[in-house]
């Protein structure tokens, strides 16, 4: 497909090297649509770059699923790193800096490395015949190049959307993980959970381990693994977690290593992330041949950090959940405010999400709402969100044009015992992380600024 470069965004030249921000703006112009499912174009450019000629690392794990990908990946990264491995990760989207998407041995990729990667992607893309790439496809190729040239022991790749046709799936993983299946991205994946499961399971490879990280996955996920003769390891069947019998607040994991031997670790700390995902992370790592050491696993789980997942900053709880399944988890784990305080929710969503389902999942825990409009064509107007909340019996106090304006409004009336959940989208959380948040309340237990 020919390029469709907009006339007001000039292509890079050797005489005027692009900055990272210029590259990102340029890449948004290269394809007529933002999302174009399929692997043909991105595979061709990857071949030109030499990315498919050999494995990008001695061991690669891919992680797909509707929710839980980020936390599962973060815990795999932390545990493997604690065992002395050099680990690289690719994730999306980012919150504040594009650099967050590529992490090399605990450090975000710097601008210079990413610019070099984009230059190589562009050079390969423009070889005759030129190939059009989406922003995500170009970014994925850049990220894979960065990781392939970093001399890593383990690479963990988060699948962006779907699985089978996602750009990340040009890489053959040694272990593939599916975390959860729920409705999201209905415009691209539909609403049939069995079909969504088959799409996510498209990351499995013949005769290579498949880890199923939920006990409520549709049967289509395991069926696809079986059709490939992939050794399948399912939560609740082949690996388990349970509370420690004599250590309150701690838990026990039991799974299998690469040789099929049963292994167990007791007395594990609460990672402040879903324990299903922690158990899944340990099972996936065990299948890579990593010998799990209890002390190192405990160290990793007690220090793992993941921004925007039930992240407390003073009286504010920030969570990127944007579908009913994620909202249900937030509602279950949101502590009640101190006596006399109100539980506010500042919510901003994209218009292609199931806002009614998210509102319903949160409604039992939220007494007072502030709605905000997110930027761009996909941003759902605050007034629309407000009408949906009111239709479900909720109390909406204010509709703001931006997340920042919603914060400013709340700053004027928060009381010492009020708490605020900010949720609905990565864009909502990113806007709040980029600015100081008004407190007006004493911190919760802990240091008040923990990132979990």
TrEMBL record:
InterPro entries: Folylpolyglutamate_synth, Mur-like_cat_sf, Mur_ligase_C, Mur_ligase_C_dom_sf, Mur_ligase_cen
Membrane spanning residue stretches: none
Keywords on record: ATP-binding, Folate biosynthesis, Ligase, Magnesium, Metal-binding, Nucleotide-binding
One Pfam family hit: Mur_ligase_C
Residue stretches making up the Mur ligase central domain: 63-208
Protein name, as recorded: Dihydrofolate synthase/folylpolyglutamate synthase
Annotated Gene3D superfamilies: Mur ligase, C-terminal domain, Mur-like, catalytic domain
Gene that specifies this protein: folC
UniProt record, GO biological process: folic acid biosynthetic process; tetrahydrofolate biosynthetic process
Function: Functions in two distinct reactions of the de novo folate biosynthetic pathway. Catalyzes the addition of a glutamate residue to dihydropteroate (7,8-dihydropteroate or H2Pte) to form dihydrofolate (7,8-dihydrofolate monoglutamate or H2Pte-Glu). Also catalyzes successive additions of L-glutamate to tetrahydrofolate or 10-formyltetrahydrofolate or 5,10-methylenetetrahydrofolate, leading to folylpolyglutamate derivatives.
Keyword check for Transport: no
Coiled-coil regions listed: none
Known catalytic reactions: (6S)-5,6,7,8-tetrahydrofolyl-(gamma-L-Glu)(n) + L-glutamate + ATP = (6S)-5,6,7,8-tetrahydrofolyl-(gamma-L-Glu)(n+1) + ADP + phosphate + H(+); (6R)-5,10-methylenetetrahydrofolyl-(gamma-L-Glu)(n) + L-glutamate + ATP = (6R)-5,10-methylenetetrahydrofolyl-(gamma-L-Glu)(n+1) + ADP + phosphate + H(+); 7,8-dihydropteroate + L-glutamate + ATP = 7,8-dihydrofolate + ADP + phosphate + H(+); 10-formyltetrahydrofolyl-(gamma-L-Glu)(n) + L-glutamate + ATP = 10-formyltetrahydrofolyl-(gamma-L-Glu)(n+1) + ADP + phosphate + H(+)
Organism: Halovibrio variabilis
Annotated NCBIfam families: folC (TIGR01499), PRK10846.1 (NF008101)
A GO term, aspect molecular function: ATP binding
Biological pathway: Cofactor biosynthesis; tetrahydrofolylpolyglutamate biosynthesis; Cofactor biosynthesis; tetrahydrofolate biosynthesis; 7,8-dihydrofolate from 2-amino-4-hydroxy-6-hydroxymethyl-7,8-dihydropteridine diphosphate and 4-aminobenzoate: step 2/2
Top enzyme class: ligase
Similarity comment: Belongs to the folylpolyglutamate synthase family.
């Amino acid at each position: 497909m020919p390029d469709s470069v907009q006339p007001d965004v000039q292509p890079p030249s050797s005489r005027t090297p692009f900055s990272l921000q210029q590259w990102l703006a340029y890449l948004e112009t290269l394809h007529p649509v933002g999302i174009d499912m399929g692997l043909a174009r991105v595979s061709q450019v990857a071949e030109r770059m030499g990315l498919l000629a050999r494995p990008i690392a001695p061991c690669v794990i891919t992680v797909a699923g509707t929710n839980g990908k980020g936390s599962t990946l973060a815990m795999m990264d932390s545990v493997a790193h604690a065992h002395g491995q050099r680990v690289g990760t690719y994730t999306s989207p980012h919150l504040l800096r594009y650099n967050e998407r590529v992490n090399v041995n605990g450090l975000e990729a710097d601008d210079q490395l990413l610019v070099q990667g984009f230059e190589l992607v562009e050079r390969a893309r423009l070889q005759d015949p030129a190939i059009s790439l989406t922003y995500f496809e170009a970014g994925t190729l850049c990220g894979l190049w960065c990781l392939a040239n970093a001399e890593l022991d383990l690479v963990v790749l988060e699948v962006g959307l779907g699985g089978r046709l996602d750009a990340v799936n040009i890489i053959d993983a040694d272990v593939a993980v599916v975390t959860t299946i729920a409705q999201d991205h209905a415009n691209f994946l539909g609403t049939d959970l069995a079909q969504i499961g088959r799409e996510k399971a498209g990351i499995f490879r013949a005769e290579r381990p498949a880890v199923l990280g939920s006990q409520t996955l549709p049967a289509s996920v395991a069926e696809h693994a079986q059709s490939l003769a992939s050794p399948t390891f399912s939560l609740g069947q082949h690996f388990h977690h349970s509370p420690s019998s004599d250590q309150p607040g701690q838990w026990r994991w039991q799974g299998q290593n690469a040789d099929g031997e049963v292994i167990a670790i007791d007395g594990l700390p609460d990672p402040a992330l879903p324990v299903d995902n922690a158990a899944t992370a340990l099972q996936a790592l065990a299948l890579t041949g990593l010998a799990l050491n209890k002390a190192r696993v405990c160290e990793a789980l007690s220090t793992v950090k993941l921004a925007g997942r039930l992240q407390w900053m003073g009286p504010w709880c920030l969570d990127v959940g944007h579908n009913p399944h994620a909202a249900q988890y937030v509602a279950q784990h949101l502590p009640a405010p101190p006596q006399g305080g109100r539980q506010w929710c500042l919510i901003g969503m994209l218009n292609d999400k199931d806002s009614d389902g998210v509102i319903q999942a949160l409604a039992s825990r939220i007494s007072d709402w502030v709605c905000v409009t997110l930027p761009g064509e996909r941003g759902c107007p605050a007034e629309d969100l407000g009408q949906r909340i009111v239709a479900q019996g909720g109390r909406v106090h204010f509709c703001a044009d931006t997340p920042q304006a919603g914060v400013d409004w709340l700053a004027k009336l928060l009381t010492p015992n009020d708490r605020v959940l900010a949720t609905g989208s990565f864009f909502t959380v990113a806007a709040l992380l980029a600015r100081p948040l008004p407190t007006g309340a004493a911190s919760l237990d802990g240091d008040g600024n923990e990132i979990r």
